[in-house]
Amino acid sequence: MAAWFRALLLGAFLFPALVESLVRHYKFSVVSKNFTKLCATKSIVTVDGQFPGPTLYAREDDTVIVRVTNHVTDNVTIHWHGVRQFLTGWSDGPAYITQCPIQPGQSYIYNFTLTGQRGTLLWHAHISWLRATIHGAIVILPKRGIPYPFPKPDKEKIIILAEWWKADVEAVINQATQSGLPPNVSDTHTVNGHPGPVPGCSSQGAGYTLHVESGKTYLLRIINAAVNDELFFKIAGHNLTIVEVDASYVKPFQIDTIFISPGQTTNALLTANQGIGKYIITLSPFMDAPVGLDNLTNYATLRYKGTPTNPPTILTSVPAQNATPVTYSFIDSLRSLNSPQYPAKVPLTIDHSLFFTMGVGVNPCDTCVNGSKLVGDINNVSFVMPTIGLLQAYHYDISGVYTVDFPANPPIPFNYTGNSPSNLQTNNGTRLYMLSFNSTVQIVLQDTAVIAPENHPTHLHGFNFFVVGKGLGNFDKNKDPQKFNLVDPVERNTVAVPTGGWVVIRFKADNPGVWLLHCHLEVHTTWGLKMAFIVENGKGPNETLPPPPSDLPKC
Fold first, then answer.
1. How far apart are CA 462 and CA 445, in angstroms?
2. Pfam families recorded for this chain (predicted)?
3. Which of 147, 234, 298, 334 is deepest in the core (most CB within 10 A)?
4. Which residues face 23 on adjacent strands?
5. How many other CB atoms are there within 10 angstroms of residue 376's CB atom?
């Protein structure tokens, strides 16, 4: 054996990080299965008959290939929420944005590389409200030989928070769409599929149990897969050390209550340092606006090894439903790690300065109950879904599908957080905004009080962004930028725009394709509270989106 070859083998053994990244293959079968919860049985659409669905494991820079086969009567797509999808926009997953849906009996292969990403993300259906039951975790471990930038935990636990309706969820949204009224709220929240004790169903059981051993530290990978509810997560008697959000490391800080919006993830270290016993875990909704929601608190338990049978449960207070200060305490503590290994590359000069108002309105509807329907809008434009994928239309230059005149600013400025204007109507359209490759973008996301102010967890596909500022009231372009954090702002893919307030995000448009920006409250997305960017190709193959795969679904 040649000396150089022996040295190469030895190097690969001693330095496994030098070994090539892996290609990881998964098969997802979309099937219906009966589940009994809240003393009622119903059939739900799942991946592999699981609720929540299977966890997708990989390492940073691995390539992931997932064959999704549709065995149900609904059209389906899967979105890999928070995966950058660099040059793989055909695998992003939102129906009619980057692909036509996978029709019954058909398959599609999603193929993407986890370039420069590590941490917790999630996957979920991205058509209608199917993500209520089609969702699961994505766990991206660091490259081999690269440690976490925090003390190594003894064990890791995935905790997926979700909602459950007794009724068929597709029927719920279809009925709401026909009536023009808000949809019925969910009947309970779940922790890893467990509803916990609920009124009127004594046979439900005690809910999810998190088993721990004294002295050990656990990394909790917490995911909010709920459809419409922002949530508080709290464990009696224990503080949590936050080390990551949305698969981006943060400066560690301790807190007793996590605030997490739909689509967001939070990694927290939990040290089992209390007396042996049984401790309540509370999962409760947040809403600081006059809007209906599922107001039930779900109770799970943390149980130490060696706890005797039927011990007393150690309780904790539940945050008030409108506990806005608790949300701020969490959000304002988030800072990017900004270390030499994980720098915060915040854009300091801006090519596109955008101002987007977010809210709801009322449009005429002849077939609806009151002759009108509730709609969502950005800059007074309610997004109209096309009938073919926007990325296809852009790639093949198909005319008549969309326009590129999405307004960079509100068409008519008004007192956004003051009294509602007299005209509540919006404009309808499939209007996109063009960005040249590598241009830098700043967006002011401004909530409005039209009908009612509300918190909007906003997700951008295809990018992470930096949250450089937030505040209450109307954004002041002269004063507020002076308070921006351009040094170590938190890096996310989903941000909560506060009720009656604003946030400012910045990102670099370095990923060609068509990318959706939308409120991750599914009720608002359904109403049209979304828009999309076209990011043009750059120069050469490393800055150009390849043609679509041969199995791209047809509409």
1. 18
2. Cu-oxidase (PF00394), Cu-oxidase_2 (PF07731), Cu-oxidase_3 (PF07732)
3. 298
4. 63
5. 23
Query: Distance between CA 460 and CA 456 in Å, rounded?
Result: 13
Q: Which residues pair with 508 in a beta bridge?
A: 440
How far is 530 from 407, CA to CA, in rounded Å?
A: 13
- Residue 182: is the preceding peptide bond cis (ω within 30°)? no
Chain length of the chain: 555
User: b vs e for 381-419, b when ≥16 Cβ sit within 10 Å of the residue's Cβ?
Assistant: bbbeebeebbbbbbbeeeeebbeeebbeebeeebebbee
CA distance linking residue 54 with residue 136, whole number of Å: 6
DSSP assignment of 330-361: HHTT--B---SSS------S-SEEEEEEEEEE
Decide: 459 and 263 in contact? Cβ < 8 Å.
yes
Amino acid sitting at position 323: A
- pLDDT tens-digit series, residues 448-465: 999 989 999 999 999 999
State the greatest distance between any 2 C-alpha atoms of the chain, in Å, as a whole number: 83
Rounded distance between C-alpha atoms, residue 227 and residue 168, angstroms? 14
Residue 435: CB atoms within 10 Å: 23
**Looking at the DSSP assignment, which residues form a beta bridge with residue 500?**
none
Q: Tell me the three-class secondary structure of 279-295, residue by residue.
A: EEEEEEEECCCCCCCCC
Say whether pLDDT at 423 is over 80.
Answer: yes
Report the DSSP beta bridge partners of residue 241: 254, 269
Are 91 and 79 in contact, with CB atoms under 8 Å apart? no
CA angle centred on 196, ends 219 and 246, rounded to 5°: 35
179: three-class secondary structure by DSSP: helix
> Which amino acid is residue 517, in one-letter code?
L
User: Residue 273, Cβ neighbours under 10 Å: how many?
Assistant: 13
Neighbours of 554 (CB within 10 A): 12
Task: Yes or no: say if 336 and 246 are a contact pair by the CB < 8 Å rule.
Answer: no
Residue 1 and residue 107: Cα distance in Å, rounded? 46
What Cα–Cα distance (Å) separates residue 189 from each residue in 194, 205, 361?
A: 8, 14, 28
Q: What angle do CA 27, 31, 32 make, to 5 degrees?
A: 160
DSSP 214: T
420 token code pair: 């509602």
Secondary-structure percent of the chain, ordered helix, strand, coil, rounded to 5: 10, 40, 50
245-303 pLDDT tens trace = 999 999 999 999 999 999 999 999 999 999 999 999 999 999 998 888 899 999 999 99
